[in-house]
Amino acid sequence: MMLTMRLVIIGGGILGTAHAFAAIGRGHEVVQLERETEARGATVRNFGLVWVSGRSAAELAITLRSRMLWEEIGGRVPGVGFRPAGSITLVRTEAELAVAEAAAAGPTAAERGFELLDPDRVRALNPALRGKFLAGLHCSNDAAVESRQAMPALRAHMEATGRYSFYAGAEARTVTGTAVIDDRGRRFEADLVLVCPGAAHTGLTRELVGDIPVRRVRLQMMQTAPLGESLTTAVADGDSFRYYPGFAGPELERLNREESQAFTAARHKMQLLCVQRLHGGLTIGDTHEYDEPFAFDVDEAPYEHLTAVAEELLGRKLPTVVRRWAGVYSQSIDPTAIVTRAQAADDVWVITGAGGRGMTLGPALGEETADLLNL
Ligand SMILES: Cc1cc2nc3c(=O)[nH]c(=O)nc-3n(C[C@H](O)[C@H](O)[C@H](O)COP(=O)(O)OP(=O)(O)OC[C@H]3O[C@@H](n4cnc5c(N)ncnc54)[C@H](O)[C@@H]3O)c2cc1C
């Protein structure tokens, strides 16, 4: 191993930034290129949830490791806005309740911090939940960060080492040997190149590694004006059980068999997830669209469904919706692959496909790559 290596990292999202953070932490020099003026992909469009609750048992260790790293990073870099707020998944039917009960009694419940709460205990923990539900599955290990301010905060922290520079508006066009050339013709020499392009599977990514086993998934999101009160935990609805492997089992099979999802929720493969931003507004989603070409505009029906469910759980009207957007993430096709690392040359890697858990797992994936490459 060389004492100090020069890394060029392509992509300014959480994967690029977390890999830069891990390399800087190990004493190396990093140049990071982002083609937009700021990270623009999934990272700035997500909920910022560090989500432990529904991860499969096989992914639990790396998820808990990443959550711990986020907490550590949050202590050193307050600008990432880390808060260990936990989450409550509210159940509204007997079949959903059975899934929550099974999760709370499962072998990994203690590691996840699961506890089943009756409505009074739910409200004691999160007084803003004044609506209708049978119970809540509390996950004390879930957490949140402020994705849109976290990347600049992490960069400022790395810049202070004197070993890190960030080039905004710099699209990497070619990798020759281990030199990266951007769209202004600038040449960045490196000992190691890590390409973290998010859902940009074409262009440089395809040129380097061809068609890797990843697909793209599109989600719709919205954000409200400030709630005017504190939502002390993140909130999910029982539909979320349907999308997280950690809840698999006979109870979930029964839920899927006996209770069809509401028409709009099923059509758009929806769950309700809701988290309060530091400015008081709520980030609410989501939908899942798998078939390309994706719509270029947002569909109103899912927003009506999300608003109705959120209002039922909160027992009040939502504040005005002030923003709506869609985001696309890259997901590894093999459901057991946490991320796709494709080697283009001796010291050139493409790393993407973290799916709907890339924000959660970013720090641990950065660390894992650094270990694998002996940094
Ligand atoms: C709506 C939504 C909600 C989500 N919610 C959560 C959540 O709450 N928790 C969670 O854990 N995960 C969540 N995810 C998933 C998570 O956001 C992603 O897995 C993660 O952000 C992927 O990070 P990335 O760095 O790989 O990609 P991106 O964030 O997309 O970043 C890639 C960057 O690379 C740049 N780039 C591409 N090509 C080049 C090039 N040639 N030169 C220079 N720059 C280039 C792009 O401009 C982009 O900024 C969500 C995703 C979406 C879309």
Automatic annotation (TrEMBL):
A family per Pfam: DAO
Which Gene Ontology cellular-component terms appear in the entry? Answer: cytoplasm
So which domain of life are we looking at? Bacteria
- Record has Glycoprotein as a keyword: no
- Residue ranges of the FAD dependent oxidoreductase domain? 7-372
Cofactor(s) of this protein: FAD
- Tell me which family the UniProt entry assigns to this protein: Belongs to the DadA oxidoreductase family.
Q: What is this protein called?
A: FAD dependent oxidoreductase TIGR03364
Its taxonomic placement starts with: Bacteria, Bacillati, Actinomycetota, Actinomycetes, Mycobacteriales
